[in-house]
Amino acid sequence: MEPACAGRRHLLPPILSCTDLPVTRRAIRSASKEREVMSSHDQLPAVLEVADLSVEYRDHSRTVHAVTGLSLAVGRGKTLALIGESGCGKTTAALAILGMLPASATVVSGTVTVTAEARPVNLLGLPARELRMMRWRHIAYVPQGSISALNPIQTVSRHFRQTAQAHNLARRVAEARAYDLLAAVHLDPNRIWTSYPHELSGGQRQRVSIAMAMLLEPAVIVLDEPTTALDVLTQEAVLETLLELQEATGVSYLAITHDLAVASAVADRIVTMYAGRPVEDGAAEQVVAEPLHPYTRALLKSMPSVDSDLAAEAIGGHPPSLAALPAGCSFHPRCAIAQERCREAGHPELIAIRGRQVACPVTVDRIGSAEATA
Ligand SMILES: Nc1ncnc2c1ncn2[C@@H]1O[C@H](COP(=O)(O)OP(=O)(O)OP(=O)(O)O)[C@@H](O)[C@H]1O
Ligand code: NI
Q: Is ipTM over 0.95?
């Protein structure tokens, strides 16, 4: 029998019971063999590379360590999902990458390298004007919440025209491209062109935001919670559209989500974030099939599953305040396998194991001793 997740309507199946989910992704994308070969070529530089990024919010009384030591690399034509619970620093990471942090935030360390047209550029070192030109043209953003992404008093056409003007894209060229893009995201351009955001459904607004992000043909798009406010069927349809666009254009995505099902439906790589830090980084199929970090495991167990008899298990406890992190591993107060050493000293570094990276020495030791006795 065909696995339940092989069908089109199951882009977001219960992942616990369906480890072959990434097949869905591959099936959608396999049309272009050529690109498959190109993008699997490890020699190609990452389109977006973030190294040791740390961001703090400071006010007179406290420092919020929103992002600490985040590193990730998004391959050409690939999707990396950055996953983690609400408040773990995902949006802060996105805003830092795009150079759009509010004044209260400070980038403490790191580089953000975008390689478009074979030229690597560190966005964090750019003057504001040059950064504005890079944005949209090389790296675009679909912000969290499709309502806030669009200006309520502007029509769809005005949104496209403004972006085109800001980047010296001729009006006729921009309009032709906008029409094509709106059709590509399965909207009727003629109908939608003069609409205001409130006249559109949540899914339609998200599609407009995605089409706008594509206007300057960027190499990479940062998608912050691309489907969160949408019902499940609309979520699936929007994710499928994102994969179609990727197939057609070779665009890369950094997809930010708290939803592991979304991540496993679209991502080639998954980076798990906990309390501002990366704790696991690996190929999506591997991370979903065999999560190694206790937090990624807990996230996976907390997913509801329709097919499985196993009930979803909420993760016990709460994430720590990013203004008052516990000593040692930030996850230790909620961790089922925490030992004395996890409560001491600094947060564990990422360790390479089984083709990925995991910030948990206890897990790494367990795997090591299991392999030694096998
Ligand atoms: N402008 C700000 N000033 C001070 N603290 C902030 C600011 N914006 C966010 N924070 C804090 O930084 C931390 C990370 O927030 P962020 O929005 O990046 O997390 P997130 O993972 O995107 O969460 P969500 O899933 O809710 O969108 C939180 O503790 C939040 O309260
Ligand atoms: Ni967020």
A: yes
